[in-house]
């Protein structure tokens, strides 16, 4: 494959017809929206550098290591001139938000992680889309991306008209809220591009005020070091003690900023069976999860994105949630049984949890109650 930019001999009419076909093929492959954009993200470089300079990426060294490459997608696949941006809904039927958040003895897992890992499924579908395009025009060259390379997928999705960037930094769509995954297909065809949609957040700051740890430090600006998703997934060491009580029963990720968003009243449920909740993860009892062996963790979470954090971080997250639960002698016993059998990092969190349980400290906040009320009023259909 040549690294030289290739200009295929297609007329504007043929390119428009192909773009229309691509969107139809995308829908047939299970993508709820497909948009096309050029690859110029230069306007985002300064903002990205400022975010890195502030250290908001925390221990995610890969963010800094790749630097401005994230804003230069053409360098990831030389010859590419367009990105086909796609979205796929993941909100499952009977997501159980209110039930799980309302019961401190249950473990809350971000809804995207309840089923199978989305990366392989979406990448396979994007590859199929690329193959369809290549069958229509043999000189097509493409490469699919689903969190598989340093690429700014949200700015690309925004340019491609899939939605606008909300104040929580996620992509929002008027017809579908934000409960969807994003993926991209870089391609060498100069297809006609779609136009961005108008921003719809207005003066609303619900996502900023509901964030348990105040991680959304300003409109469109996230300090990942305070974000519960970062703390429970990306952070490999000790969770800062001052943030632990604010995490409640969230053991993998956090959906609060999406749950409170008014636009998610229009969210669409997923049609993908792979995204439906696994038996072990649907409103699970914290103590039951805590009693898993490492072998059970690996076996029961095979094919799940959760498994990538490793057993020690899984126990760390559960210990924090147990410490935040309503005081209970059974929880104290369960924590004591594992105490002394783990590494120093996990032991630190067990000691913290035991101290809170013994002191009778529970975490039930007005903010959480407000969130649950909003969830009960604003959920789409059967979610």
Automatic annotation (TrEMBL):
Q: Which residues bind tRNA?
A: 236
Q: Where does [4Fe-4S] cluster 1 bind?
A: 201, 204, 207, 261
Please write the reaction equations for the catalytic activity of this protein.
epoxyqueuosine(34) in tRNA + AH2 = queuosine(34) in tRNA + A + H2O
GO terms for CC? Answer: cytoplasm
Q: Which purpose does this protein serve, as stated in its record?
A: Catalyzes the conversion of epoxyqueuosine (oQ) to queuosine (Q), which is a hypermodified base found in the wobble positions of tRNA(Asp), tRNA(Asn), tRNA(His) and tRNA(Tyr).
- Where, by residue number, does cob(II)alamin bind? 70, 147, 165, 171, 182, 229, 254-255
* Keywords for this protein: 4Fe-4S, Cobalamin, Cobalt, Cytoplasm, Iron, Iron-sulfur, Metal-binding, Oxidoreductase, Queuosine biosynthesis, tRNA processing
- Report what the protein is called: Epoxyqueuosine reductase
HAMAP family referenced in this protein's UniProt entry, alphabetically: QueG (MF_00916)
The residues that the entry says bind [4Fe-4S] cluster 2 are 211, 227, 254, 257
Q: What does the record's cofactor remark say about binding?
A: Binds 2 [4Fe-4S] clusters per monomer.
Q: Which GO terms describe its molecular function?
A: 4 iron, 4 sulfur cluster binding; cobalamin binding; epoxyqueuosine reductase activity; metal ion binding
Q: Which InterPro entries match?
A: 4Fe4S_Fe-S-bd (IPR017896), 4Fe4S_Fe_S_CS (IPR017900), QueG (IPR004453), QueG_DUF1730 (IPR013542)
Protein source organism:
Idiomarina seosinensis
What is the active site of this protein? 147 (proton donor)
Principal location: cytoplasm
Q: What broad class of enzyme is this?
A: oxidoreductase
The answer on whether this UniProt entry bears the keyword 4Fe-4S reads yes
Give the record's pathway: tRNA modification; tRNA-queuosine biosynthesis
Q: A Pfam family matched by this chain, by name? A: Fer4_16
Entry's EC annotation: 1.17.99.6
Question: Which gene name does the record give?
Answer: queG
Q: Where is the 4Fe-4S ferredoxin-type domain?
A: 189-221
Output the superkingdom of the source species.
Bacteria
Please provide the Gene Ontology terms (biological process) for this protein.
tRNA queuosine(34) biosynthetic process
The UniProt family comment states: Belongs to the QueG family.
């Amino acid at each position: 494959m040549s690294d030289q930019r290739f200009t295929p001999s297609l007329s504007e009419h043929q390119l428009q017809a192909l773009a229309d076909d691509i969107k139809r093929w995308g829908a047939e492959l299970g993508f709820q929206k497909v948009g096309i954009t050029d690859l110029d993200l230069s306007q985002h470089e300064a903002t990205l550098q400022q975010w890195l300079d502030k250290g908001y990426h925390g221990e995610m060294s890969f963010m800094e290591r790749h630097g401005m490459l994230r804003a230069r997608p053409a360098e990831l696949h030389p010859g590419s001139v367009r990105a086909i941006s796609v979205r796929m809904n993941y909100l499952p039927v009977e997501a159980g938000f209110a039930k799980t958040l309302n019961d401190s003895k249950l473990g809350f897992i971000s809804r995207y992680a309840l089923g199978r890992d989305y990366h392989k499924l979406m990448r396979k579908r994007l590859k199929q889309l690329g193959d369809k395009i290549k069958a229509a025009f043999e000189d097509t060259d493409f490469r699919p991306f689903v969190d598989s390379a340093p690429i700014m997928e949200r700015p690309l999705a925004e340019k491609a008209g899939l939605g606008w960037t909300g104040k929580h930094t996620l992509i929002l769509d008027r017809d579908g809220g934000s409960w969807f995954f994003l993926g991209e297909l870089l391609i060498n065809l100069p297809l006609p591009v779609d136009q961005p949609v108008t921003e719809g957040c207005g003066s609303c700051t619900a996502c900023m005020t509901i964030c348990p740890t105040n991680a959304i430090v300003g409109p469109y600006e996230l300090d990942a070091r305070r974000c519960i998703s970062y703390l429970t997934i990306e952070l490999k060491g000790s969770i800062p003690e001052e943030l632990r009580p604010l995490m409640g029963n969230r053991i993998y990720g956090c959906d609060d900023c999406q749950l409170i968003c008014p636009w998610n009243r229009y969210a669409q449920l997923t049609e993908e069976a792979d995204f439906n909740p696994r038996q072990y993860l649907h409103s699970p009892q914290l103590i039951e999860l805590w009693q898993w062996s490492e072998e059970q963790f690996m076996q029961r979470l095979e094919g799940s994105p959760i498994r990538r954090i490793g057993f020690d971080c899984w126990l760390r997250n559960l210990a924090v949630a147990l410490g935040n639960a309503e005081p209970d002698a059974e929880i104290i016993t369960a924590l004591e049984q594992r105490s002394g059998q783990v590494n120093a990092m996990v032991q630190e969190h067990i000691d913290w949890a035991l101290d809170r349980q013994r002191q009778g400290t529970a975490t039930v906040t007005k903010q959480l109650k407000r969130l649950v009320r909003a969830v009960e009023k604003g959920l789409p259909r059967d979610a």
